[in-house]
Amino acid sequence: MELPGLNLLNSLKNAQWIVATNTYGNNHATLIGMFVNWWITLAPETHRVLESGPSFGHLKGGGFCDAIFCKDCAAVGILEVEGRRGKWAAEKIGKFFAAEYNDLKTLEFAILLLYVYEPKGRGSKRAMPPVGDREGLEEIKRGSRKYAEKPMIVITLDKTYERKPKGIRGRREYYWSKPSAIEGS
After folding, report:
1. Which fold has domain 4-184?
2. Which among 30, 74, 85, 134 is least surrounded, fewest beta carbons within 10 Å?
3. CA nearest to 46, candidates 16, 76, 3, 4
């Protein structure tokens, strides 16, 4: 028997990753749009998306998510795309899985994409840090154990720092990194 999370993860191979790899700067909105496209393309007759998604409730920090994946009118998945706060995003997913609203109790899975967009260090040691936020990854593991019946797919998008690229990208350091690795689990 194949696990539902593994089916979702395998289907993500068909997402338009070329869009992610050819977008520079903080591509948060682009990444959300790429996932929206992936979900709807899987089953356009029944798949819908709320973007940005509603709040999980009245609890402190009743945060909103980047998108809710729906089958017809039922919420089935949550999307978080985060460039700085992996632990915070993972905690928020747990709050959605424990939501007080009935229309969120139908959630079956979550996708968390972690990426970086700001280099760290000085001089020749200036580089893009790896995505692996240790606290965030630990929170994901905790959430996965607590909500074992609801797969949490984690995707990391690492970037490489390029010194003074040619053309318009060379104008600002903000555009000097490019995606180098995308991994999902």
Report:
1. Trna Endonuclease; Chain: A, domain 1 (3.40.1350)
2. 134
3. 76
Residue 114 Cα to chain centre, angstroms: 6
What's the pLDDT tens digit per position in 30-53? 999 999 999 999 999 999 999 988
Positive or negative, the Cα torsion across 99, 104, 105, 108?
Answer: negative
From 138, 137, 135, 179, select the one nearest 158 (Cα to Cα): 179
Cα dihedral across residues 74, 50, 131, 57: positive or negative: negative
**Residues ≥6 apart with Cβ < 8 Å to 62:** 55, 56
The structure's pTM equals: 0.88
